[in-house]
Amino acid sequence: MTQTDNFQDIDLSNTDSRARLAQLITRLFEHWQLSDEDQAALLGLSTKNRSTLSRYRQGKPLANNMDLLDRAGHLLSIHKSLRILYPHNRSLAYQWISRPNKRFNNMSPLEIIKERHFEGLLTISHYLDWELHQ
Question: Antitoxin Xre-like helix-turn-helix domain spans which residues (predicted)?
Answer without folding.
Answer: 21-76
